[in-house]
Amino acid sequence: MRGSAAAKISPKIAAQIAAREARLADMAGKIRFPEDLPVSGRKEEIAAAISANPVVIVCGETGSGKTTQLPKICLELGRGVPGLIGHTQPRRLAARSVARRIAEELDTRIGEGVGVKIRFQDRTAPDSLIKLMTDGILLAESQHDPLLKAYDTIIIDEAHERSLNIDFLLGYLKRVLGKRPDLKVIITSATIDAERFSKHFSMNGKPAPVIEVSGRLYPVEVRWRPIEDPRDTVANGEALAKPGVRAERSERSAREEREADEDRLYEAISDAVDELSRSGSGDVLVFLPGEREIRDAAEVLRKRHPPHTEILPLYSRLSAEEQDRVFRGHSGRRVVLATNVAETSLTVPGIRYVVDAGLARVKRYSYRSKVEQLQIEKISRAAARQRAGRCGRVADGICIRLYDELDFESRSEFTDPEILRSSLASVILRMLDLKLGDVTQFPFIEPPPDKAIRDGLLLLEELGAVGVSTQGHQQLTPIGRDLARLPLDPRLGRMVLAARDNHCLTELMIIASALGAQDPRLRPPEQQQAADEAHRRIMFGPEEQSEFMAWLKLWAWYDEAMKHNSSRKLTQFCQKHFLSILRLREWRDIHGQLHTLAGELGWKFNATPATYEQIHRALLTGLLGNIGCKSEEKGDYLGARGIRFVVHPGSYLQKKAGKWLVAAELAETSRLFARCVARVNPEWIEQIGEHLIRRSYSEPHWEKKAMQVVAFERTTLHGLTLQAKRRVHYGALDVAASREIFIREGLVAGEIDQSWVNRWPFYKHNQKLIEDIEELEHKQRRQDVLVDDALIEAFYDARIPADVVNGAGFDAWRRDAEKANPKLLYLNRDDLMRHEAGGVTTDNFPPEILMNGVRYDLSYHFAPGASDDGVTLTLPLAHLNRIPPEACEWLVPGLLRDKVLQLLKNLPQRYRSKLVPLPTFADEFIAAQQLVRDRAGDQSPSGLMAALIQHILFERGLNARGWTLTPDAFAPESLPAHLQMNFRLVDGQGRQHDQSRSLSDLRARWAQEARDAFSQSAQAAVKAVAHKAEVATSDAPIDAEVPAQTSGITSWSFGQLPELMELTVDGQTLYGYPALHDDGDAVSIRLFDAQDAAAQVHRQGLLRLFAIALQEPFKGFEKQLRKDSELGMRYMPLGDAADLAQQMLWCALEQACLPEQEKNWPRSAEDFAEAARRGRERLGLLIQELSRLVRGILDEWSAVRKKLLTAKAWPTAVSDIEAHLARLMTPTFVRDIARDQLQHVPRYLKAHTVRLDRLKSGGAPALARDQSALAEWTALWQSYERRARDLARAGVQDERLNQFRWQLEELRVSLFAQELKTPLPVSVKRLEKAWQQLGHAS
User: Fold this and answer.
1) Given Cys at both, which of 204, 215, 372, 1331 links 64, Cβ 3.0 to 4.6 Å?
2) Is residue 1130 pLDDT above 80, yes or no?
3) Whole-number Å distance between alpha carbons of 922 and 918
4) Which residues, in sequence order, are bridge partners of residue 1084?
5) Burial annotation 260-273 (CB, 10 A radius, 16+ → b, else e)
6) 727 touches 720 (CB < 8 A)
7) What are the two backbone dihedrals, phi and then psi, of residue 581, each rounded to the nearest 5 degrees?
């Protein structure tokens, strides 16, 4: 710099320029250009182009030397003094290796003439002339040096890679060149679309010059070795590139085929290396898509090649030490397995051969799902040439391509630029911060699609970084401006900003810097399990819920390790725990820069540890697109925008990530994986993503308890449901609709909470009016009396203000409004009725009905088809067996005429013709029955059907003609449901148990429960009356019918026991049948709802009382019976002799003390004493007679059993006899069989002996007769058995059926042993007729 220009430069810069001039002078003699490099031969042409043009494009093939020689050409031109010669590389590894190579050629050291800056490692001195760096570093420097004044020359190397940073830099440099005519820009690449770049940097219509430099010094032979796929015709490598392309394959088969494809790839690589080994000495460079493929291929090669072959991996995640191994000298053959990091700039020494799989793992950003996909794809032709260019630098080279030439020609010429497959959020953020104007107008080499720009802006809006100005332009918000200051991805930066405001900055600085650096954890292929265990011990506890928190533990662990170890020991300590010391330092460097920046900005770090919630709420601000909810069906996670993903298998939380999680990264390889995950609360997501939440409301409805309109809110974030159905108050959301619902469903429909009803007299009045009119409708069976709800709604709508939407608001308004007009909200009867309901009177439709002195509630409902259509009688369970079915046939007066008419219409024409006109006859019948009821003082003593038959036959004189009429003729089963009484069975608390129009069906199902309920109610009433008697005074009368003592009775000390007792139960007068109940050592008085049930219990109770009264002789007889060992032995197959003795004693006691007729049983103390006296005299004799009878029965039983042992030839007969014996000879046969029947049991048993003898002597004819007789008897027995079983379930006793049962026993004697005779004539026909008369025909 000379003259006036120098005068404007600050002393500091002037000192730097002087230092550089001195450095350049010192290097003057050291700048040499190797003649073996093609670029050296074009040095003069290139220098002239640089001097004459602001932009020069050097299109040099691999091996041309452009990367190392262009900086030296610039030095020779005097560049690098006013400003540095900036030299960018796409990768840090390449930047380091190029810097080292240039420094060697200039005979200087890195950090002196040649500097290098990689992330936080800046080894640039004031006198440095050349500065190697990544393109990201240069981009970051543009933020504080917008015109890049620190440089006078900028070389963008490997521009063909078209990374996002490169494309943005090229566009940015075009803008800068307009303001800095002194700046020189050189674009270089081995393969480049020269015309596109030339046009992009045209000045004044003149394209930038392009200089093409040849590359290889030695020829390279390309050999095509496509991988054969025996299964399908997919092009080489496509199965790897797109695993699962066949939609019809299952996931398992797709995985198996992918593994098979990989196996073939590794076999092909091994074969190619073998082939190259035979071609001569030299190292082999194998290009593979990713780290996993490198590890697997290395394993295959180590198994197949001799030990002296060195196999080394090379990829970006390796430590610098491991990467440097490929540059060290060696003996023997070396095989380097590399990703595409070895395609450009980086020159691996000694490479003579290349094996190109034709694949690369390419990162693509999905604008739809917002996730990055790391898919294996085919490389472009340009990339393939780059790979081939890595050999032939030291000798003739060979490149084996594992695909065919046709496949090569079908590939795209260039790799898709990253700007077309990446999120542009960080670029847009930087552009807005630099005020570069509209993104769509920025001079990109290849403008990104509109959807990419929209996507980037949406992400920034999600982060709260971008807003819209008053002029409608996109601009940074305060959050956005703060984000632009941070050297972090926008998402990570947003977390840090949230941490600043959420008092967890200390922790988030550590986590964010960890996420922004390379993972320091190492997993050597041969020690993966040990590495995982070491990392788990350091970073994860047993109850770990977050992998983000694990970074804090690792940070603390490393911090502690630094305090107690020297540098060398610290390195060894980290290696022992499988941690990269360089990456840990890089992590700390990033953290240090962030920490310094935060201090400069005045941010405060929290002194106390932050909570789990604070940390993860801050994380969520930057990761709202990476949340997920676990799917119960598939076990994977449903994420934002409809994506599905799984937690990465290497995650510590893979099996316990919880219902909701957030992930630091979602990346798609073989499937979409979430990495670095943590459990989160969905409420945090909803609060943090408030500005992105979409809310929808459904099912607005009135809630009686809340007294407000409530709807269900559904909240979604990026299509992911956070709350599916949350109750919210709808009044504030839609006032008009809420008011309408409040009126319609609350006030009109009657859904008002009782606590509010008590405050609103108008509402009670209006509801009472409506209920009365609805009751009229049900009784009249028409629904046109009450006005429509719409008219009632209109009444309230005209009076209630527009802003009243709930009970509280309405009540506040009502109190004020009713002060001026107390009747403002009162409806009147005329307004509610369309017309008068004539004939609907209390007499015709009474609210209750009186039967047997008890009043039963009646209700009316007009709902054809409904179970309660018509009139319903509420029947307490305790009254089920007491209500007379005949009285219920009459329904109520208001429905009686309709029922009678319907019954008359159902009559056959022969009868109906005698009764016309039917309505007149029906009226006559009803009038006549009214006279009968008036005379009887109650309802008609007979049922409706019986009364109607009587009236038809006698009033029309049909009986005189010999006509008869049965109830079946009326077809009562075809009556409409509302013309039959409906019974609603309820318990004491009013809870419904059952409902039916058939009283007999209810009794069949609930008879026993009804008896129990009646007994409990009656017993409670009896005890209450008895207690009243105990405390009665002279002026407190008691019910004389109720015994003074009701339990613990051991003698007849309770006075007269009435046959019927009147009690008051629940305010109703009931009649019960008292009985003595056997309580074991005493008796008690209980009431029953049926006389037969009472008699059955009373029999046992009387016997117990007789046994107590006669206990002295009773015990003597019991002792005597127990001593009868012979009798006991015969009974032994059935039970214990003591049980038999008890049965015989009770049987004799019943015969001695109880008369056969129930009416003659004792009801007073005197009668009981007399019966006991007579029983004492007869008991001994009766026991003797019974002993002889029982002995005879057991003898016959024993004889039959012996006969059966020799009768196996007749299995049907034997089976029948055994079944009969099992029914007859039970362990309690003496107690169960009545005394009159017990005396016939020996004959019944003898009949079996006769039957077996007849079968034995009669041969086939006898067997045929036996089987025929058995069939006839079985048919009758089965009919009896079904009916007996049904009655037993219903708890009903039928004496006629019991008599029929013993007639069946006599029939057995008649059929199988006729010579034994029967007391009365009996036959099959006689019993069939008897069964028909019983009405039990099956």
Assistant:
1) 215
2) yes
3) 6
4) 1077
5) ebbebbbebbbbbb
6) no
7) -65, -35
Continuous segment of H or E residues that includes residue 476: strand 474-476
Integer Cα distance of 313 and 311 in angstroms: 7
pLDDT at 498: 93
**DSSP string covering 915-984:** S-SHHHHHHHHHHHHHHHHHHHTSS-SS-HHHHHHHHHHHHTTTTTTT----GGGG-GGGS-GGGS-EEE
d(CA 665, CA 370): 11
The reported pLDDT for the residue numbered 235 is 39
CA distance 276 to 838: 113
Q: What is the mean pLDDT of the chain?
A: 85
Q: What pLDDT shows up at residue 84? A: 93
Say which residues have a Cβ less than 8 Å from residue 1205's Cβ, sequence separation at least 6.
none
ω into 313 cis (within 30 of 0): no
Q: Whole-angstrom Cα distance, residue 772 to residue 753?
A: 21
DSSP run (H or E) holding 297: helix 291-304
Tokens linked to 983: 């019974």
Pick the closest to residue 139 from 433, 374, 380 (CA basis).
433
- Name which of 875, 872, 882, 873 is nearest 852 in CA terms: 882
DSSP per-residue string spanning 124-155: --TT--EEEEEHHHHHHHTTT-TT-TTEEEEE
Q: Is there a contact between 1111 and 1180 (Cβ–Cβ < 8 Å)?
A: no
DSSP for 1232-1298 reads HS-HHHHTTHHHHHHHHHHHHHHHHHHHHHHHHHHHHHHHHHHHHHHHHHHHHHHHHHHT---HHHH
Percent of the chain with pLDDT over 90: 30
HSE of 504, CA atoms in CB hemisphere, 13 A: 21
Region 843-854 average pLDDT: 84
Residue 822, judged by CB atoms within 10 A of its CB (0-12, 13-18, 19+), counts as exposed
Averaged pLDDT, 210-216: 79
Q: How is residue 1091 written in tokens?
A: 């006389």
CA dist list (Å): 584 to 137, 164, 510, 557, 570: 20, 27, 12, 11, 11
Using N-to-C axis directions, what is the helix angle for 581-600 and 567-576, rounded to 10°?
A: 110
Segment of 797-811, 923-937, 1024-1038, 1273-1287 carrying the highest mean pLDDT? 797-811
Which region among 733-742, 940-949, 1236-1245 has the lowest average model confidence (pLDDT)? 940-949
Contact call for residues 873 and 860 (beta carbons, < 8 A) = no
Q: What is the C-alpha to C-alpha distance for residues 866 and 872, in angstroms, rounded to an integer?
A: 12
Q: What is the pLDDT of residues 355-371, one digit of tens each?
A: 999 998 887 777 666 66
pLDDT at 1022 over 80: no
CA 1149, 1154, 1158, 1163 dihedral sign is negative
